[in-house]
Amino acid sequence: MMLKDKNAVVTGSTSGIGLAIARGLAEQGANVMINGLGSAEDNEAVRQSIEDDFGTKVLFSAANMLKSEQIIAMIAEADKTFGSVDILVNNAGIQFVSPIEDFPEEKWDAIIAINLTSAFHTIKAVTPGMKKRGWGRIINTASAHALVASPYKSAYVAAKHGIAGLTKTVGLELAEFGTTVNSIAPGYVWTPLVEQQVADTAKARGITEEQVIQDVLLKAQPTKKFVTVEQVAAVAVFLCSDHAASITGSTLPVDGGWTAQ
Ligand code: NAD
């Protein structure tokens, strides 16, 4: 139980990658505050299932990552209830695809707020405690789009490049305080979000779902396989280990070779 007595907050963790990371941390003995939008009933079921499976304390926060005061209150609640926040995972994120000339201003603002600014608020809030205790792990779910671009994803690529810069900066600031700050940069990961995208794209383009997967999504991914949420979670768990104490300020690709090209 590598993370016994450690307390974690994982944003955007009621589904997909964040949920797998929350489960991975709980499996190692960490108490976890999960977070996300959606129905109270579904979120309670997710919370209970992690607690049942791993026997650690699991809390749920409905904080909306668009709202700074809710983000700050979420960290304060975790700190008060658990007694500390030792591990912070900034994972909440949304996507919107459009040519720049048509890109809606409100979508730009929302993507920058959720995918980038929310991490500024959470990191700012957890840093004093991590510095004081001399141990901390901050992990951001970035994307291959933190390292390379694709057309029509201006806000997402800008936010993800931004998170890589924030990671480097805070990594330097916390380097002497036993606290590492890293980003994981996944390629295409098989999540409910992507599954839905496959069905929608197949319909829109009049091609089969298999063609969407091979010719559209996995075109950029040399392995021709989706990354799994468990593979991303395993990297997050490793980054929390003592063996990873010298990895900081980095953005680690988990992308089937995408950004090697
Ligand atoms: P997902 O849609 O399955 O999960 C997103 C989570 O974020 C959900 O729990 C949702 O409730 C929550 N969320 C969304 N908006 C929120 C808000 N305003 N406030 C609080 N919570 C909010 O998505 P996913 O595919 O697991 O993506 C998670 C992260 O991984 C994102 O940052 C995404 O950019 C990144 N990522 C995903 C892929 C991929 O292929 N799926 C690839 C690279 C990076």
How are the SSEs placed, and which strands pair?
Layout: E1 7-10, H1 16-27, E2 31-35, H2 40-54, E3 58-61, H3 68-82, E4 87-90, H4 105-133, E5 136-141, H5 154-174, E6 179-186, H6 192-205, H7 209-217, H8 229-239, E7 251-254
Parallel strand pairs: 1-2, 1-4, 2-3, 4-5, 5-6, 6-7
Helix pairs in contact: 1-2, 1-8, 3-4, 4-5, 6-7
The structure holds nicotinamide-adenine-dinucleotide.
Nicotinamide-adenine-dinucleotide is lined by residues 12-18, 35-38, 64-66, 91-94, 114-115, 141, 143, 186, 188-189, 191-194.
Could you characterize the architecture of this molecule?
The chain is globular. It starts with 6 loop residues before the first strand and ends in a 7-residue tail after the last strand. Helix 4 (105-133) links the parallel strand 4 (87-90) and strand 5 (136-141). It has a seven-stranded parallel beta sheet, with helices on both faces. By secondary structure, the protein is α/β, with parallel strands linked by helices. Helix content is 48%, strand content 13%. The site of nicotinamide-adenine-dinucleotide (NAD) has 29 residues, from helix 1, helix 4 and helix 6.
Task: Tell me the Rg in angstroms.
Answer: 18 Å
Biggest sheet descriptor: 7 strands, parallel
**Secondary-structure element order, as H and E?**
EHEHEHEHEHEHHHE
- The first-level CATH class name: Alpha Beta
Q: What's the CATH topology name?
A: Rossmann fold
Fourth CATH level, the homologous superfamily: NAD(P)-binding Rossmann-like Domain
Number of helices: 8
Instruction: Work out the number of β strands.
Output: 7
Q: What proportion of the residues form beta strands (DSSP E)?
A: 5-15%
What gross morphology would you assign? globular
Uncertain residue ranges: none
Rounded average pLDDT? 96
Q: Could you give the order of strands across the largest sheet?
A: 3-2-1-4-5-6-7
User: What compounds are bound to the protein?
Assistant: nicotinamide-adenine-dinucleotide
Derived from helix and strand composition plus strand pairing, the structural class reads alpha/beta
> What is the rounded distance between the termini?
38 Å
The figure for the number of domains is 1
CATH architecture classification name: 3-Layer(aba) Sandwich
Helix content: 40-55%
